[in-house]
Amino acid sequence: MSTNTPSRRRVLGGMAATAATVVGWNAATQTWATAAEASGRGGGHGGGWWGDVAPVPPLDGSLKTSAADLVQFSKDFGALVSNITPWAVLVPGSVNDIVKMVNYARANNLKIAANGRSGTGDDLESHSNYGQAAVPGGISIDSRGLGKVVSVGTNSAVVEAGVTWAQLTDAAAAKGKMPPAMPDYMHLSIGGTISVGGIGGTVGKYGLAVDTIESIDIVTGAGQLLTASPSVRPDLFNAALAGGGQVGIIVRLTVKIVPAKERIVVFNLIYNDVATYLADAEKVLAEGKFEVQAGELARKPDDSGWRYRMELGATYTGTAPARDPLIAGLRDVRSEATVDDMSFRDYIFRFDAYVEDYKAFGYWEQPKPWLSLFLPAAKVKQFLQIAEADLTANDLGVGFVLTYPYRTSKLKRPMAVQPNDSIGYLFDLLRFPHPGEPDIAGMLEQNRRLYDKAVALGAKRYLVGAIPRMTTTDWKKHFGSRYSDLLNAKRRYDPADILTPGQGFFG
């Protein structure tokens, strides 16, 4: 039986070591061996039971195999896939622990992947949505073990991969700085975010989060700790950023930082038809007046159809800018416009209040069949009309659909593949289904249906989200000419194919 599909006996065998110290992996029984078991089954070093055990190297952190530890990694944020329990969780006490355990996994034919544990308070979860970070029958690395902000300089900060954007923002703020490109939910690990790209409302100005990464330290699947940047091992750098964890475990990053914004004026403009919304959205993008440009496809208040909301943010320090010139030339939407003036920090953490409500009313733990796409501007109207006809209010629950433009030239990292258009649009279907018995299977099929229609129009997918039955052919079409680059990097830096199997890029 493959180690990717452990039997119930094997999983329970791995879980049996509750508080005991794991001393090695037993290749014969496909279970972890404890010191107590080893001493009770006869010692010796040349054969018998102990001879089947590969000793775990000494670690600065810990390797956990108890049921209580493994259950935390038995599902991810999407709550859509099962049977993803790993056989062990590494809580690294140092980067060297990751080097040791990657080499150990390679020597013992075990899969291994980083798991960007994040969230607020004690609610720490993997924000993988569809098993992307899962390693059933393998070793999951708890990224919280690498959670240090190493330094904050004038133009860049050095952080370990488990640091969240919230932690970096707070550390940088003490020196009057901030990261320029951030996700909308700030409690995600930086390492996990840049493995897929990292998109938020500043993409039109700064690109994805990966476009602000200056260098990385990464433990490759061959067990080497290497530094990579656009000028040092660029093939490794380009394959690691937005490459889905296929070539190494990122352990440290140098992130660009900029002067912190103090305040922001936020406009919310309502549009009742897609053509007007798209025209104004692209006008705003071209003029470049705003630090933030986002947008949403939402149900009308009477549930009679769909309308669009454009969210624009102009940052300032000192005197607030005059408001009318900022939206001059846009369609006559002022009658429904709302304008807020707030601290920029309050704005970037605005989603926290929604999270608390989702948790209070039982939505946060619901399955989340999300779908994230990059659409070409030339076909976006056509696709949005398809989506409007297909989606219902019940398909969203209390979720939402983000859609807004950006210049594809701002996205520099090659694995964050983009439509063949100078302007792309994010389409981000973020469902929070109503508690009860939602039709999750139907929503997943809807994702597949919308994905296929989008791809036919020239769209690409964002690596988060849940699209069933992705095949190697699908992934080859997605990456296009860059698939061979990713495959070559995989063969060079992960020759034993032990890293992050949940992505399924190579079958």
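[next item in queue]
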Amino acid sequence: MKLLPASLPPVGGPAHPARRMRMVATGMLLAMAALFIVARSTVHLHPAIGFIQAFAEAAMVGGLADWFAVTALFRHPLGLPIPHTAIIPRNKDRIGDTLALFLRDNFLTPAVVARRMQRLDVAGAAGRYLASPSGGDGRLREGASRLAADMLEALDQERLGGMVKGAIAQRLRVMNLAPLIGQSLEAAMRDGRHAPVMDGIIHWADRTLEANDHLIRQMVHERSGKILRWTGLDENVANAIIDGLRRLLADMADDPGHSLRLKAEEGMAKLAADLQHDPAMQARVARIRDEIVDNPAMQRWIDGLWEQARSGLLRAVRDPGKAMAGRLGEALRQLGGTLQDDARLRLLVNRFVRRAAVGATAAYGDSIVTLVSETVRGWDAGTITSRLESAVGRDLQYIRVNGTLVGGLVGLAIHTADTLF
């Protein structure tokens, strides 16, 4: 999947400002070309038309030059592989590397981070944010909730999520599911809750038989002798089998005391007993449980369960009416007041935060730089070029318009000078 920068706007339609300005610039260029053709063909009619011709000719040249320059930034003009055109697509990787180096040299060095952190009173700001004596309880709960949400989002989600998902999987592995399933099945049969399930199975079997009776007919036809097929008796045999099965299913559906239903209930009762008391059956269920836990689909379900839990927790802590209230809110208020009043504690906290920031920069700065560079390399050249052109294209099209006008004025000035002197 190609990564795209979130800050770039989508490529717009005809109403997009960049598209409108491109149409204006191109229309002006075409208008100058048409004006030049008309003026050149009628210049013999009046000397003043020469000025118009000079203006249109120079404007056309200036517009073409600026069109070539603007287009060469993003693509090959007219699709021709002219050297030093399509600058951005060809140098996309180098741009990413340069951006990453600029980020590393100017923002992600320990010395720069240390200088910035020395001017920040993180502890005092946190104390005012938590206590907020002038904001009231609502602001306290809101600030504390937001702080808790930020802390939760700042945790290493891969490691935290791996720990939670690993704990869920381990908990599932140690559960002895066989007795629980056996007890549930036994209780359902004792209360008669299994009857609707059996009715549903019978109705499903009847619908399946009706939808696939052609398979039975085909099987009987293929296994019948030549005489049966020649006489058409294979069709009668197939009809008899299908009718017999359907009557059997209908009788089972209508008669709760049908012998086959009773046999099925006996089998279910034996299964419930084996699940609770037979070690061999319990071992089989344990093996099935482990296979299910190891199945990739189950792992994806556990991943989704963790994400849902994390999202629910974030929604809870972001709601100041539900989280960080009561004693916890009061404790955070006291902590905020202490951070504001205790200069020694504030100094220790600021020093810890500064060292943590510098240490994180030293440990992960190169990784961040590599991430930026690889992310830019992963962008699709055509798409990113189109979106960059849409983002800055309006100003670039103004360059074309200005080039057309300036070129025309220069041509007019030169023609005027030639005429006068």
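[queue empty]
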